[in-house]
Amino acid sequence: MDNTTPRMSSAQIVMSTQMPGKMSTGRKTTANGGSTPNRQTTNMVTSPESNELFTTSPIEGMTNAPTVNIDGPVSLDGSKFYSYPNAVTETKKAQMTNMIEVTFRTRDYDGMILYNGIGPAPKMGDFLFLSIVKGEVLLGFNLGMGFKKIESPVFVSDDKWHTVKVARSLTDASLQVDQEELVPGSSKAGASQLNTDGIVWLGGYEHEYPDNVYENYRQTFEGCVKDVRLDETPLHLYHNALKEQPTDFCPED
Fold first, then answer.
1. How far apart are CA 214 and CA 159, in angstroms?
2. What SS3 state is found at 17?
3. Residue 227, Cα to own-chain centre: how many angstroms?
4. Which regions of 106-205 does DSSP assign to beta strands (E)?
């Protein structure tokens, strides 16, 4: 048996500020350590499989920690949920409009992709969420006058990348999956503002859902998420995380 360790060619290393002997391979790596990137040792490397550039960073607090592609798709296993400001760098607790875009991949037929609600205490309240139900995407929201759902007929539980776009202005909203036909809908008149705690959750919700988020929409999400935009602003799934930062990432392919 040949025990020689494969070596990377020097052409694969584009830029590095790491110390010698700590070369990143650019391959997908799972890290179970801390959560804050060491900004002094961030690299630009080339993937040996695809020759594409991406940013890697070791996880702080781990000796000889592996590097991870913190710019890549986040892996969600149904047990971890990540929270973000609903305006990317700040929280907005009252919104008259929403524009949301998220790209995901999953094999599961049910799972909460994104949730924005009033917070952990109230039994009732405003919310907006994107969930997969029986292999199709559902947009649900409540502005105070009752629950409204908008459903897409596109099957998405096929382990392929799909992009969902949500637009809401006052009581009117729409849902679009990939390049398929946009599906519109409107909630009841009388309330047009979404009042929440200003925090968006990906993959599930670590608190108890309000009673008016029905049980069949609450299944946690298992799969990969990338390219999230909130009100047309890109959300960095690692750097913009409020509490725990992701440590598991998916390949792009």
1. 26
2. coil
3. 8
4. 110-117, 127-133, 136-142, 147-155, 162-169, 172-177, 183-186, 194-195, 199-202
CB distance 108 to 157 below 8 Å: yes
pTM given for the model: 0.75
79 three-class SS: coil
Nearest to 44 by CA among 17, 65, 64, 75: 17
Alpha carbons 189 and 105: distance in angstroms, whole number: 35
Number of neighbours of residue 214 by Cβ within 10 angstroms: 14
- The answer to whether residues 148 and 135 touch, using CB atoms and an 8 Å cutoff, is no
How would you classify residue 181: left for phi > 0, otherwise alpha for psi between -120 and 50, otherwise beta?
Answer: beta
Residue-wise pLDDT tens digits, 170-225: 999 999 999 999 999 999 999 999 999 999 999 999 888 888 888 889 999 999 99
Q: How far is CA 154 from CA 16, 98, 100, in A?
A: 43, 22, 18
Asked if 57 and 43 count as a contact pair (C-beta separation under 8 A), the reply is: yes
- For residue 1, the tally of other CB atoms under 10 A from its CB is 3
Q: Kindly report, residue by residue over 61-72, the tens digit of the pLDDT.
A: 545 555 778 999
> Structure tokens of 67?
């590097």
Contacts of 185 (CB under 8 A, 6+ apart): 139, 148, 149, 150, 172, 173, 174, 175
3-state secondary structure of 215: helix
